[in-house]
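Subgroup meeting minutes
Present: P.N., E.W., G.H.
Scribe: E.W.

1. P.N. recapped why we're keeping a running log of single-chain structure predictions: easier to compare across weeks, and new members can see raw inputs and outputs side by side.
2. G.H. added today's entry (424 aa).
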Amino acid sequence: MSSMIMTKNKEESDKVSAKSEDSEENENKNNNKINDLIHTMQPVLRVENFFGIFRFRITAEELLPTNKKMKLISILMTVGYIAIFSFLLKLPAAITGTGKLVDTVDEVPSIVILIQYVTSAITTCFLLTNNSINIFTAFANIDSALHINTSEDFYKNARKRSVRYLGAFTVYHFFVTPSDLSTDEEITFSKLIVMPLYYEENLEILVFCLMINMLKCRLTVINNYLAKFIDEKENTRAAVFVVGERKTNADNCFNLIGRMSTKNMKIRDLAATYDIIGETCSLINQVFNYQIFMTLVSTFTYIVITIWSSLYYFRSNEAISGSMITIIIWCITAILKVAVMSLVCERLLLTRNDTKILVNKVIMDYDLPKTMRVQAKAFMDLIEAWPLRVFIYDMFSVDITLMLKYISVATTYLIVIIQVSHFA
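Output recorded in log:
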């Protein structure tokens, strides 16, 4: 009797140890996926760190909130920039009446950039660190569900894409900065200080675009699985593919859904993955909501200042100054920035529309088992529930129509400023 009890206890202990080993193995795999994800974004995140912007910290292959050292560095850098700007800007002269109004207007873009940098650094490091961790954790779960972790090329291509975009972005600024400085009548230290912050302002939009593109790439993987299932059914191929831990291309090398069966629940799994993509899109929206809003505010400010300055120099019969040309350059680059954001978000919406079309094909295929069509209908409900749109504080949707709205608003204010200038 005692031997039987000992045998049962041993079996139970073996089961417990096996479960603990499995949990440890799953945790290690999840950490490896997160490390691969961070590796794809690491070049851009390291550049952010040079400006005192820390989204999280990595300790023992685990994402953790920012520590006191990171927060202190962020505070010191923002306070340093505020002190430098307060000392170098010409606003005190304008306030006391010893400076021209046009000189004060010329300093407005620099003030907008400073406000955007300070608020972005503080909120990212102090308030949004948990959301940033949740975003990368959600990406790791998506990759696990889609078997992206079996493809090393997927992460290699993602890192190459990040490096390529960062390189193009940096080269672009190296061309814009000299042209900006060359238009000024004199190059002062204050103008040189603004340039790094202008780079950082656009860098935040680059990070946002890269994350939206990460969502788009994973949604494309879902579309590829659905398209492969539909194509193989139309071609009446019934080959069975075993999904295992092996090196393969998750995009198009095997049929994740498999063949038709009343017990096949793969479409439901893809729907659950789409649900995670929708939640991740919402998290990205929350993290970059303020940054996108300030980008639109700064772009609108540059447009208004450009219009006002043009009318000022035109009515005063003065030659167009270097400051005017500088503001025009900033205005053009800001509009391009809004255009890039709108284009990236529009591509995500187009990919979602492709998903909707593919799922609808599965629903309308009456040769499929009823259970699979029911799963596809639930998938369609999720697609309707998660439109994958990025909103700016629930006011504007970031898509291709945003550019048309901007052109409309700019035209309206052009008319208003022209009318007001006649009474001045």
